[in-house]
Write a structure and sequence with these properties.
Elements (H helix, E strand, L loop, with lengths): L9 H12 L2 H7 L4 H8 L3 H14 L2 E4 L2 E4 L1 H7 L9 H14 L2 H7 L9 H15 L3 H11 L5 E5 L5 H8 L3 E6 L1 H7 L10 E4 L11 E7 L7 H14 E11 L1 E2 L5 H11 L6 E2 H10 L2 E9 L4 E8 L2
Parallel strand pairs: 3-4, 3-6, 4-5, 6-7, 8-9
Antiparallel strand pairs: 1-2, 7-11, 10-11
Amino acid sequence: MAESLNIHDWQELLLVAAAIELDIFRELAQRPADAGELARRLDYDSRSVRIVLAALEDLGHVEKKKGRYRTSAQIRSLAVDQESPDYAPYSILHRRNLAERWLTIPEVVRSGKQVERAYTKERRMVFVHSMNDVSRRFAGAIVNRCLRRAPDARSVIDIGGGPGIYGREFAKHCLKVTIYDRPEVLKITQSELSDGPELNFASGDFNQKIPAGPFDVAFMSNIFHIYGPEENLKLLRRVHASLAPGGIAAIVDSVRGLSPRAPLFAVTMLVNTDTGDTWTEDDYLGWLRKAGFENISIEDVQDNGRQLILANKAR
């Protein structure tokens, strides 16, 4: 993510997210313009554009030269250039959506229930693509670690893997990959994944069932924090049944006590889920052992605030 963006300043976060949504950065990256010209080009209110551009300039996200604004190099990498390793516009929009949910903390604490909301197609799209933004930098290294543990693996099921970033990485190693997710998620991403390595898709609810397999690797990223202990243990038992003897379960998540982001991330789960939380090393060890796994290891994902948990099914 661009170093010039302070995502912990709520005003800056909301302003940059708005500029992304309004296509201001993309438009100014293509053709610099003064405030009036940009307002006419995008059919926006001229006073509003003038004020927003002045604030973005003050923050260093647009630059002004001879009266005309252009997108800064850092923001171009973040929000415009899809080939940039820093490209992550959906991550910013997702953080904006999360900020709205955090405003419900008092009501959630009083009632113990998340505040119901309309989950629009647009919000689902932002969430799904933001998962790619978050994982893009680390997916290759994580997949390599999984395959060092399972060097003879030939098949993978990516559970809840609709965004496809990990599935593509596994497929690059010539593994047969099945991405399993809800149909509404696959509807967003399946066509976008068709131009990469060959992938198989299966739709369903992993809280009810998962494909029978047998698979050599069951990969699960950003799942366990959404649910409570009962659901997580049941999922791991389903995973164990779907694996071939000697197969591995691979979990990527923020482990409380190991990840510095876990306590605050748990608040995000509080306002967005009914039973979610961040879970400790002992929690994961307990679930995995009860589900029948052995040879359990937990290691940090460098600079990502997450951990990779690996466990084997007995041969």
